[in-house]
């Protein structure tokens, strides 16, 4: 994960730490050449505060910060002809060119989302969902498609997943949740109207809740403690379509399904084979 992404994933920076973070992001080429005393002088942030900032974002100290910045600069220099995820193709592009650009968009989005993955947090979320008897998904609009795809995958290994669509049904479902439930809240922006009221109901009932959305969102209710981040490149309104956010959300849910599947791998393989002829009545011999 890049320094910038590590900073975005840190939810509770102080005003002083935010000033320091902004300086580091905007002056990455300069940071590697500075001593901690020089950085302190340029940002008016004490050396001890710089060390605390490093610890908070997951780095041992200032020297490691400098090394990480150099690595990030080297990695960025390798990325050429990066795609604009909001306008990935132009009016004059041929269909063949559009096909190539969408490949690039998919690759860029998945690679970007992969950089935000914190393996420990992912493992915690997978454990919560694996342990739950029932998984309830709360989302709306185009995210309903990836939610239903995840639900279908989970059902194929005998897991119960609910995906209610109307706000009324979501409130009823959240209110009826029991301790053996776990909840997935999908909102790219973190500003969806259902997020606050539904998460409050789940919090009061003690339901383990996981939010998946763009890194850097400041609108997510604080009581949602489990968070998985996806690429934040897509603009909320100025775009051709939700190409990037859709692919990022799909990738994250596919990753979660795969990790859950892996925990009972042999059992799940056996279950899929056992129910194949029950679920699928097509006469397929190939």
UniProtKB/TrEMBL annotation:
Question: Which CDD domains has this protein been placed in?
Answer: SIS_RpiR
Single Gene Ontology BP annotation: carbohydrate derivative metabolic process
Molecular function as annotated in GO: carbohydrate derivative binding; DNA binding; DNA-binding transcription factor activity
Q: What are the transmembrane regions?
A: none
- Ranges of residues in domain HTH rpiR-type: 1-76
User: Which one Pfam family would you cite for this protein?
Assistant: HTH_6
Q: InterPro entries, per this entry? A: Homeodomain-like_sf (IPR009057), HTH_RpiR (IPR000281), RpiR-like (IPR047640), RpiR-like_SIS (IPR035472), SIS_dom_sf (IPR046348), WH-like_DNA-bd_sf (IPR036388)
Q: What is this protein called?
A: MurR/RpiR family transcriptional regulator
Which organism's genome codes for this protein? Clostridium beijerinckii (Clostridium MP)
